[in-house]
Amino acid sequence: DIGSERYTFNFTIRDSPTYFINVQSWGREEYIRSLSESFRVGDCVTIENPLIQSKEAEREEKFNPVTPSCYKLLLSENHSVVKTSLCYETDTRLLPLLHLPVKDPQDYYSLGDIVANGQSLNGRILNVLAAVMSVSQ
């Protein structure tokens, strides 16, 4: 609808140590809010009826994990469904994937590196691997 607001929600899924893909969804606020609250990091999901699109690597991988695929999944509010499942009970091979980062271990900067080299890193987009101690409003 022309003039209506659209919202977006992006995430990455994986089903093996080497294969993972970015998922992008667009839609009304209610749809995106419901989708984003329907699962958490580490949940198993089944995605039904996604649209498969070629990704524009230079544009999209600036703010999303670089994936080995040249495609992305696009979720449609009217056609796609994301369902959580208890797949760990049936496929224990997925459990080790919870702790694998989607980035090459050599492609991260530590917070110490950023503090020490901040001047030379100014204006660059970096990958940071850090632990979150707390989250508040």
UniProtKB/TrEMBL annotation:
<dbReference type="Pfam" id="PF24903">
    <property type="entry name" value="OB_MEIOB_N"/>
</dbReference>
<dbReference type="GO" id="GO:0008310">
    <property type="term" value="F:single-stranded DNA 3'-5' DNA exonuclease activity"/>
</dbReference>
<feature type="domain" description="MEIOB-like N-terminal">
    <location>
        <begin position="2"/>
        <end position="103"/>
    </location>
</feature>
<protein>
    <submittedName>
        <fullName>Meiosis-specific with OB domain-containing protein</fullName>
    </submittedName>
</protein>
<keyword id="KW-0238">DNA-binding</keyword>
<dbReference type="GO" id="GO:0003697">
    <property type="term" value="F:single-stranded DNA binding"/>
</dbReference>
<dbReference type="GO" id="GO:0000712">
    <property type="term" value="P:resolution of meiotic recombination intermediates"/>
</dbReference>
<dbReference type="InterPro" id="IPR056880">
    <property type="entry name" value="OB_MEIOB_N"/>
</dbReference>
<dbReference type="InterPro" id="IPR052469">
    <property type="entry name" value="MEIOB"/>
</dbReference>
